[in-house]
Amino acid sequence: MRKLSSNNYHSLYKCVERNKQMRAMRDNSFKTLDRAITHAYFKDLKKKQGVTIIEIGGYLGVLLPKLVATTGTKQYVALEPVPSFYQQLSKRIEDLSLQSRVTTYNFGLAKSKKELQISLRKDATSLLKDDKREGVQTETIKIFNVVDFFVQIGLGCNSLNLLTINCEGCEFDVIEILTSTSLIDNIDFVQFQPHLIVFDDDQKYICMYCRIRELLARTHEIAYDYPHVWETWKRKGL
Q1: pLDDT reported for residue 133
Q2: Is residue 62 in some structural domain?
Q3: Does the model's pTM come out above 0.85?
Q4: Torsion angle defined by CA atoms of residues 99, 102, 108 and 114, in that order, rounded to the nearest 10 degrees
Q5: Which of 29, 185, 214, 221 has the most beta carbons within 10 angstroms of its beta carbon?
Q6: Burial class (CB in 10 A: 0-12, 13-18, 19+), 183
Q7: Residues 6+ apart with CB under 8 A from 161
Q8: Whole-angstrom Cα distance, residue 197 to residue 169?
Q9: Does any domain span residue 214?
């Protein structure tokens, strides 16, 4: 397990200071965001053989076909824990005739294995934002341990070209755990969407956000950055 050094903590505090106006920074990122970048940035992967991609938070399969077309991957794994979303994701993959290229799993990832009820809020459905209003639909979802999943899928022995995460808050658990082990060394690109909206406490969010950036910075460097909206980190020396 890798821990933060005193220098890392100094950088983390500087990050917190830089991001005090996080909501204004996020709003500006939305204004300037190139919405194609989440797939177009990875066009050079098409030159590689055996490109592998894992998407955490497949939702209804919006990003998936764009990344498949852009990179030419024949090894795409998509995780979606919400059963109703998973059914729609599977149907979209079938409609696009991508079954031979895409493997799907109906579970999510976190620090520990569990099963729980989650409130449905369309694309804002989150483990961190429970909606207890009367009449709000809920579903039972399954969660597996981050390390267990990546080890079983072979990340310890093989490289992963792209890990893309859009899971309404689970990105903090996933990235912190991966960067605390040597598994992160086998991932070329880490793309994720940080979700300020699922936190009731801005200070808690910014500390977690800066922490995972500091952890990533030990093995990766920024490739593109729209603060608090979308960012990608590239493995150093790639």
Answers
A1: 52
A2: yes
A3: yes
A4: 60
A5: 214
A6: middle
A7: 45, 48, 51, 52, 53, 71, 73, 188, 189
A8: 9
A9: no
Chain centroid to CA 190 = 8
90 within some domain = yes
Please tell me the total number of residues recorded for the chain in this structure: 238
Q: How far apart are CA 20 and CA 71, in angstroms?
A: 36
Number of domains, the chain: 1
What per-residue confidence (pLDDT) applies to 9?
80
Confidence of residue 125 (pLDDT cuts 50, 70, 90): very low
Q: Which domain holds residue 70?
A: 38-109+147-181
Rounded CA-CA distance 79/107 in Å is 6
Asked if residue 119 has pLDDT above 90, the reply is no
| Among 73, 122, 75, 66, residue whose Cα is nearest residue 96 | 66
56 bridge partner residues:
79, 165
The confidence band for 36, taking pLDDT boundaries of 50, 70 and 90, is very high
Is 137 within the bounds of a domain?
no
Domain CATH number, residue 61: 3.40.50.150
